[in-house]
Each structure stands twice: as C-alpha cells, then as structure tokens.
Amino acid sequence: MRFRLIPREERFYDLFVNDATNMVRTARLLEAMLRSYDRVEERAAEIREAEHAGDEITHDIGHRVESTFVTPFDREDIIALISGLDDVVDFIEEVADTFVLYRIKAPTEPAIRQASIVVAQCEELNHALVNLRTFNDLERHWIEVHRLENEGDQVARAAIADLFSDGADPVEIIKWKEIYSLLETTIDKCEDVANVIERIVVKHA
Question: pTM of the full predicted structure?
Fold first, then answer.
C-alpha cells in the first residue's frame, strides 16, 4: 500500500458543497415564504433551523482547517469561503425574522424579486463549488453572480425610490427601507462569495 507522507484532505470539497446546498435550501425557503406568505412564523422558524445547520457545517470545516496539515488550498481562503457562505445564510435568516418582527402584512413585488435573485445567486455559487475540486468551468458562475448583483442593485434603488414617491406612512417607509436594504446586503454577500471563489481559482489556475 502506498503511504502518503502529507495527505491532502479531500473531504473539504464535500463539506463546501454541503454548506452551499444548505445555503440554496435556505434561500429557497425565503423565496417560498414571500411568495406564499402563509404560516409566516413557521416558515421563518424553518429558515432559522437551516441557519443552525449551516453553522454546524461551518464549525466542522473550521475544525478541519485547524487539524489538517495540508488543506486543498490556502487556509485563509477556506476561512473566507465558509465565512462568506455563513454570512449569506445569516442575512437570509435576518430578512425572514424582520418580516415577522415588523408584522409585515404582505411582501411587495420588489422584495419577492430580490429574494428570487438571492436564490439564483446561491444556485450559481453551489454549481461553482460542486466543480471546485477540478477548478474547471467556474468563471461563468461568478460572472452570473455579478450580473445578478447589478440587477439586484437596480431593483433595490427603484423600490426605495418608490417608497418616497407614493406618500406612504413614515413608519412603513422605515420598515420597507430596512427590508430592501437587508435583501440588497444579502445579494452583495453572495457576490463576496463569488469573489472568494474567483480568487481561489486565480491562485490555482
């Protein structure tokens, strides 16, 4: 049997995919919550459970980074990657919780559109991480995440502008401005993950 003096921990790649898959699930739960807008507190609780599952995966990867002699790529990039994925899920949970906290009666079309952009970005990131082991055909995924981020900016700007042109109640303006901003931040966090993946690929190409 051939003995590898410095084994490389390939299990990391499976954990990255697990983490990204959980992120996609969380994003889809948020979109479903806004599209149906029934059982809102129950749906928000499901998102919270998914966030906790993501935390466990993140902690598992973090422990492996500490205990593994040779990682698949730079430790700092692994930490940046899992931190970025964790941030996306955290903000998705915060969006869901904010809908409950503010007792929002119904979501707006821009908010639903923003949630669907988050889903699309998460799916692209998941596809990229599935192929990260080989570093093949990843560029198109981060390019699409960037394109979706630009689209998300346009949706957020238009939505916030509409708040101040419709003569809405000031309290409602404050609530919706925060929700739109949280969703926009979630979209930006997805782009941050895409940037980390691009940096990893550039280093190892």
Answer: 0.93
